[in-house]
Amino acid sequence: MPDEIIVLGSSSGLPTERRFAPGYALTAAGKLFLLDCGAPASTLLYRYQLDPVDVEAIFLSHWHMDHVASLGLFLSQNRLLKRLGPLAVYGPRGTRGKVRRLLSDSFLLADELGYPLNLTNIECNESYQEALLRVTYFKTQHLERPKLKTQFGSKATACGMVIDGPGWRVVYSGDLSSSQELGPYIEGCDLLIHEMAHLPPEEVATFAATAKIPHVLISHIGPEFDEAPEKIVEAFAGIYRGQLTVAEDGTRVALKSTSRQKKQVS
Fold this sequence. Notes:
single chain; seven-stranded mixed beta sheet; globular; disordered C terminus
C-alpha cells in the first residue's frame, strides 16, 4: 500500500451532486488513517478499494457537522463488520465526551462494540506518533468567536494538522480564517491540503507562493467553484508556480520521500 492521500469528499459544508462532504484517507507506512469523517465516508472507502476495518485511527479537525457526520455510522459499521482490532479517534478538546454521547444517543454501548475504541482529546501542539507517522495538531481561528466561546468554552476549538511520514510532510489546513494562520507550521511542507470554503483563491495562492510550497491540493471547495474549478486555476496563475491540484472526489496524491525532509520520523 503506497503512501498517499485519497480525497473521499471535496465539498464545502454544502455537498453537491459531484462532491461529498470533506474527508481524506491517508495511507502511510502500510497503515490506513482518516482525516475528518464527512458523509458518507463509510461508503466512499469501499468505492476506493479501502476496507473500513483497516482504519487504525481517525483524526478530527473540529466538530462542525460537515467534518464528522459519518463518524457514528462508521463506528456502528465496524461493529457489524465484526472488527476486532482497536480503533482510535483523536480530536480537539471535548471529543471524548462527544463520541460517548453519540454512541449513547444511538443506543450503542462502548463495551458492546466488539472492538476497543480509544478516544483522545488532543491539545494543540500535541502529537500522535506511531512508528513512522506523527500527527501534530495546531489551533486555527475558525471557531474563535466570542459567542461560541461564551456558549461552549474551550470545546469550541478547530485545528489543523502537520503530518510527518517517512520522508514527507503534509500540512492539512482544517478550516481557517486566514492562510497566514499556517505560517508557523509550514516549514518543510511537501504537500499543503488547503480548504477553499472560507478564503479567496488569490489569498491561498499568494501564501503558497511566499512560503514556496511545492504542491498545493485545494479541497473543501465552495459552491461557487463546484462546477467551475478552472476559476481556482485561473486565480493561481501568475501568482503560484508550484504544482496545483484542485481536488475532485477520488483524487489521489502520492506521498514520496523528498529532499525537503532530511530524516524520517523517529
